[in-house]
Amino acid sequence: MLRRTLLTMAGTAGLALAAGGALAQETLRVGLILPMTGPFASTGRQIEAAARLYMQQNGDTVAGKRIQLVLRDDTGVADQTRRIAQELIVNERVGVVAGFGLTPLALAVAPLATQAKVPAVVMAAATSTITEASPFIVRTSFTLPQVTEPMADWAAKNGIKKVVTLVSDYGPGLDAERAFTAALTKAGGGVDNLRVPLANPDFAPFLQRAADAKPDALFVFVPSGVGAQFMKQFVERGLDKSGVRLIATGDVTDDDILNGMGDVALGAITSHHYSAAHDSPENKAFVDAFQKANRGMRPNFMAVGGYDGMHAIYEGLKKTNGGGGEALVTAMKGLSWTSPRGPVSIDPQTRDVVQNVYVRRVERVNGELFNVEFATVPNVKDPVKAAKSGPN
Ligand code: DHB
To answer: Average pLDDT, whole number, for the chain?
Structure first.
């Protein structure tokens, strides 16, 4: 049914293309589908701001095409993402769909991208398997196993032997749990796993169980924006004074909300691919420009995923001379550049980002809380896919 609808609509689009050739030739619409309202609105706000900043800095014309962003709010609900993507592809004739704030939203669009041969640039969602769901997906965010393994390695090297993991109970959380548990167990540690629902999480009962287990550390993954709720309950349960160390992926100490968490966040160790405090000229310029354009809002890792996603689209279009579809996906494979996060490339085999992962500590710098990077693991691939493809 879906197939027939899409084929019929593709036929209609073909006719429209012939009739309105000039417009079709000169404009490439990028359908940006994001949660702009609801519990994950900070992800949408960050990515939209970054995509607009990229276009402001690099112009709205590339390889003879005028780039037009078409922003749609999916409210973080997968059925909406699918409906909107179909509408954008068929009626608005977008050449690229992009955004995707959560794993289920990216997965909902994967079959449409394949069917319509439209590149889908995943700027946020981070479950490892997403790029395997369609050969038209290119990802500029990260994967949870990619950023979690360095955290487990750091823990093992720093005397942390017994850990309780606490993750949101869906794709990226399960990826983080699996990667952390495997790596720490391999290093001789012991791990217990707890999972908290994604929607409206109440951390209290899980934090109580974690405290009762008296581990050396609590390892946490929650998606961007949720870390503040977690931290509040962490304090209310007295875990900050219990001697249990807090370690996490950088999703928890997300730059968008970190400064509002207060001193309880100080000393938390996290691993991630981006910190607003990353010390490079490219990042200083990015943070300054982003804050100027957005009334002081600090960019987080979602913003960088959006900014780099636009870069991949622009550079891909330069290589195809404005061509889209499969050629644009091919052109994005193997791109490499210096991002605000550091050196990155699009792995031609997996269409994931190869990037540095940094180990960071929350510190107060000039009166504000930041994730201050103190160690770098260079050029990390998604380890799940690297393991599947074997040694090379
Ligand atoms: C996902 C969402 C997030 O906000 C995040 O920080 C990591 C992963 C996801 O749903 O894939």
So the answer is: 94
